[in-house]
Specification:
By secondary structure, the chain is of the alpha+beta class. 38% of the residues lie in helices and 25% in strands. It folds into two domains: 252 residues, Phosphatase 2c, domain 1, CATH 3.60.40; 114 residues, Jelly Rolls.
C-alpha cells in the first residue's frame, strides 16, 4: 500500500494553549490524533503522552507487523487489532499513573483515534469523540462513532438533531484515555481502495462543518492544501477550540485485494440481513466475516449438522438437496444459513459446491458479540433477521396450505357402510 499524508494542528482563536496532538510515522504506518483535557496544561500532557506511548509500544511489536505483511499465518488481523487495543491500554495506564502522582495533572485524559497501516489493511483503534472519516467517491462517511453523551442519547432515540442539546452536552464524553484505570477500546479493520482519503480530526474541526462541507474541503486538492483549508474553515467559523486535521491518501493498493474488497461490499449490500445498515456499519460487519474457500464438489454442510454460520457466496455456486432430491442452486450474491444465527437448529439440507467457491462466513458467537457492542446496528440486523424468518414462515405456511388443498382435491371419499345390510354390493357384477 502506498500512502501520502499531511497534518496540521492549530490552537484556534479562543484557547491559550493547544491540547491537541498528532503523530505520523510513515515508516511504521502509525497515525494518531488526540485531544487532551484537564486543568492547566494537563490536557497537553495527556495527548502528548498518548502519542509517545503508542509510538513506543507499536515500535516494540514492529516484527509482528512485518510478519503480518509477509503473510505469516501466525499473525492474523485479530492479532493486529489486539496490538492496537493493548497499545492504547498501556498509554491509559501511564497517563492514569501520572495523574495519580501529580495533583496538578489530576483528572487529565485524552481522546484517541489511531490508524495502523499494515500490508493492504487498515487497523483502527478509537476512544472518545475525535473522529475518522472516509472520503470515497465524492462522499464523506464517518467510520468512528463518538463516545459522547450526545451520541448515546441519539442512539437511544432521546434526541434527533437538536442543536440546543448538542451545544449543551457537546463536551461531555463517555470514554477517554487515562481517566480511569482501564478503558474500553473500539477497534475496526478494513481494506481501503485506491483513491480513498481518510480524515482524522479533533472535535474542534468537525464541530464547524457538516459532511457535505467536509466533502467540498477534501475534494480534488492535495493533502497539504486540504489540511490548510480545513483549519482555515474551522477558524472562519469562530475557532472556539483547538483544531487538528490529518489527511491520508491511499495512492496504491494491490489490485486483486482492492477488487476483492469492492466485491465483498457490493455483495453484502444485496443481502437482506444488512439492507438497513449505513456504510460505516457495513464496514464493521465486513470486518468480522471470515473468508473460506471450497473445492468443487466439496460438502459445506450436511443435513443434521449443527447450524452455526451464515454463508454469503462471493464466487462459485452450491446445490441444496434433501435426501438426494435437489431443492435449489445458489450463485454469487446468494446466501444460506442466516437462521442459524438465532439458534443451533440442525441443518435441514445438504449443501455442496458445484464449482470452486469463495464464501464469507459469519458465526453465531461473532454475531452476538457484534450486536452486544453496537445497539443501533443490532436493532437493524435483528429486525432484518425477523423479516427473513417471517418470510420463510409465510412461504412454508403457503406451501403447506397448497399441499393440503391438493391433497383434499385428489383424495377419494371413504366408502360409507351399505345402507341396506345383506343386499348386494354395488361393486358386484349383477348381470
Amino acid at each position: 500500500m502506498k500512502i501520502q499524508y499531511a497534518a496540521l494542528s492549530d490552537v484556534g482563536l479562543s484557547r491559550q494553549n493547544n491540547e491537541d496532538a498528532y503523530l505520523a510515522d510513515d515508516e511504521l504506518g502509525l497515525y494518531v490524533v488526540a485531544d487532551g483535557m484537564g486543568g492547566s496544561n494537563a490536557g497537553e500532557v495527556a495527548s502528548r503522552t498518548l502519542c509517545e506511548m503508542l509510538h513506543r509500544y507499536v515500535k516494540e511489536f514492529e516484527g509482528q507487523i512485518r510478519s503480518f505483511e509477509h503473510g505469516d499465518m501466525r499473525t492474523s488481523s485479530a492479532n493486529m487489532l489486539e496490538l492496537l487495543s493493548q497499545a492504547i491500554q498501556e498509554a491509559n495506564t501511564v497517563i492514569f499513573d501520572k495523574a495519580k502522582k501529580d495533583p496538578a495533572l489530576s483528572g487529565m485524559g485524552t481522546t484517541a483515534v489511531v490508524m495502523l497501516m499494515a500490508g493492504e489493511q487498515t487497523f483502527i483503534g478509537h476512544v472518545g469523540d475525535s473522529r475518522i472519516y472516509l472520503f470515497r467517491d465524492g462522499k464523506v462517511h464517518q467510520i468512528t462513532r463518538d463516545h459522547s453523551l450526545v451520541e448515546e442519547l441519539k442512539q437511544l432515540g432521546k434526541i434527533q438533531d437538536s442543536n440546543e442539546v448538542k451545544a449543551k452536552y457537546r463536551n461531555a464524553i463517555t470514554r477517554a484515555v487515562g481517566v480511569y484505570e482501564t478503558v474500553k477500546v473500539d477497534t475496526l479493520d478494513l481494506t481501503p481502495l485506491p483513491g480513498d482519503r481518510f480524515l482524522m480530526c479533533s472535535d474542534g474541526l468537525y464541530s464547524t462543518a457538516n459532511e457535505d462541507e467536509l466533502a467540498l474541503l477534501l475534494d480534488e486538492v492535495p493533502p497539504v492544501e486540504a489540511v490548510e483549508n480545513l483549519v482555515r474553515h474551522a477558524n472562519s467559523r469562530g475557532g472556539k477550540d483547538n483544531i487538528t486535521a490529518l489527511v491520508m491518501d491511499i495512492v496504491e493498493v494491490e489490485p486483486s485485494q482492492a477488487n476483492l474488497t469492492q466485491q465483498k461490499l457490493e455483495t453484502l449490500r444485496r443481502v437482506p440481513l444488512f439492507k438497513y445498515l449505513t456504510f460505516d456499519e457495513l464496514l464493521k460487519v465486513v470486518s468480522i466475516f471470515q473468508e473460506e474457500h471450497f473445492e468443487e464438489g466439496q460438502i459445506i454442510c450436511q443435513e443434521g449438522d449443527p447450524g452455526d454460520d451464515l454463508y454469503v457466496l462471493i464466487e462459485g455456486g452450491v446445490v441444496i438437496s434433501k435426501r438426494g432430491i435437489k431443492i435449489a442452486t445458489l450463485g454469487p450474491g446468494d446466501h444460506f444459513g442466516e437462521l442459524s444465527l438465532l439458534d443451533r437448529h440442525p441443518r435441514s439440507a445438504d449443501i455442496q459446491t458445484t464449482s470452486k467457491s469463495f464464501c464469507l462466513v459469519l458465526g453465531r458467537k461473532k454475531f452476538y458479540t457484534l450486536i452486544r457492542e453496537a445497539s443501533t446496528l443490532s436493532v437493524k440486523m435483528m429486525w432484518s433477521l425477523a423479516q427473513v424468518a417471517s418470510a420463510r414462515l409465510r412461504q412454508t405456511t403457503d406451501d403447506l396450505g397448497l399441499a393440503r388443498s391438493l391433497s383434499v382435491r385428489v383424495r377419494m371419499p371413504t366408502k360409507p357402510a351399505h345402507p341396506f345390510p345383506g343386499s348386494p354390493d354395488d361393486s358386484e357384477d349383477l348381470s
